[in-house]
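Exercise 7.
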Amino acid sequence: MNGNNRTLWTAVLGSALLAALATPLPAAGIADVCRAIGIKEKDTMFSSVLTGRVLEGNRKQVVAVTTFFTGKKDAANAVNVRLDVFNENGGKLVSVFSRDFGAEYEGYVGRGDLELVDLDLDGVNDIIVTFDRQDNPLVDQRLGEVLLLGPAGFEVGWQGIMMLDSTRDARSVPLERRDHYRREVDIPRTLKARGATLFLMKRVIAVAGERLEHPKEITETFPLRSAMNGR
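Solution. The predicted structure, written as tokens, is:
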């Protein structure tokens, strides 16, 4: 890469990271989110609440992933995870988008988390949400989604497993699927592809029930959004 191209890329990357900055809300903001979704703040277990521009226009939105006790007695539905996007209007939060992962997965969800990153450098943050899937007590699993703003609203650009350890379940998991691995989004490489390709770094710890002597790192690629497609 020559000097001019290196300087241009540095400027582009710097702009992307600045655009992707999201500001955590203070405790009062978390209380506002709880009020908006109809739960008590004392029932929250974990919350990730950020402000950032995830819609077209100059206004910033409030984006929250909230993990909370539902008050239900059955193990499947005792805890829920929600993703919510709000506009602020007159000091109140007005919902513009929501996902109820407990309802979608019929329970057994836990500890959600959130990142806002402008993966395609268009000035609008994309949403990366992760949460635990707990339907099998012998399998540790964490799911993830990348949500993009499309012509009709938010759409899932990618979804999959971010962490899996099924090595302890010799009864219900076939031997060839008793793996242990972790994934994380490779943000710099995805930015360089301007969001057309999602890059994931996969760290494989065990395969078919056998722990590797040294973890193996693999770069995975998935189509995310064509850089030629506008909104």
